[in-house]
Amino acid sequence: MAGTIIGLKNLYYAILTTDTASALTYETPVRIVGAIEAKINPNASMDTLFADDGPMDTISTLGKIEVEIKQSDLPMDVLAALLGHSISGGVLIKKASDVPPWIAIGFQSLKSNGYYKYIWLTKGKFSVPEQSFETKGESINFQPPSIKGNFVKREFDQEWMRETEEDYVDYTASIGTNWFASVDGTGTVDTVAPTVTVVPADEAGSIAINASVVWTFNEAIKSSCVTAGNFFLLAGGAPIAGALSIDTTKKIVTFDPTANLANSVEHTAIVTTGVQDLAGNALAAESITTFTTVGL
Q1: CA dist 82 to 102, 107, 198, Å?
Q2: Which domain, by its residues, includes 127?
């Protein structure tokens, strides 16, 4: 029995890195928690050719595809990814020169017959969203943010959208299982925990007192995980003040101490299991590295 759309969940985005006549590549899809509403408005025009006192031919042309996403929240790392902003020291930095990347948006929607519809919009850009703030009154007035964008066809194959439904005759369970693993559906779901290496190395000695600590992951991690609660440096059990940053690959996290480290003191650099890769897999165990400083 046919079903009517009644739900929305599992909203993902994937950065489109290459789209040419001969090549197409995306980064690993990332989930945005708290999907409320997704509107897709394809703008198409149709013209008819008249001849011999009557209509003889007709043609339809696809224009821009308008998309609006409403969320319970748009975290800073998501805004940075969608709009080309940067995050430094826990602060979202917006510049007039920021350029939003091309992205794909995917989600699934429950139908009234209990089956799901799956969708990917394969190439588009979002614009800076409006912001509205209102004081809290006697009753709660939720103010969920929304973000709008325009989507187009890909250069690689002219595709602009793909979709499937669980109750379609040719649907197989593997399609839904791997739908969000990659935009083209050929990937597999990432369930492997990230790993990390640290500089200075564990038990290293003679480390300069002006040294920084650098953690390098084997895959991209969530920018929102780069906090003082997940990455920190201790000396004698006391925390060291400093600034955290993550590079554009989202693989390298750096801690720059505010002042020189104490001389001839053992320091401990720690990363907690609160750190997750883009698929949501957490670090399997805390990373604890000790090193000893020496004066310049």
Answers
A1: 8, 16, 29
A2: 9-47+55-177
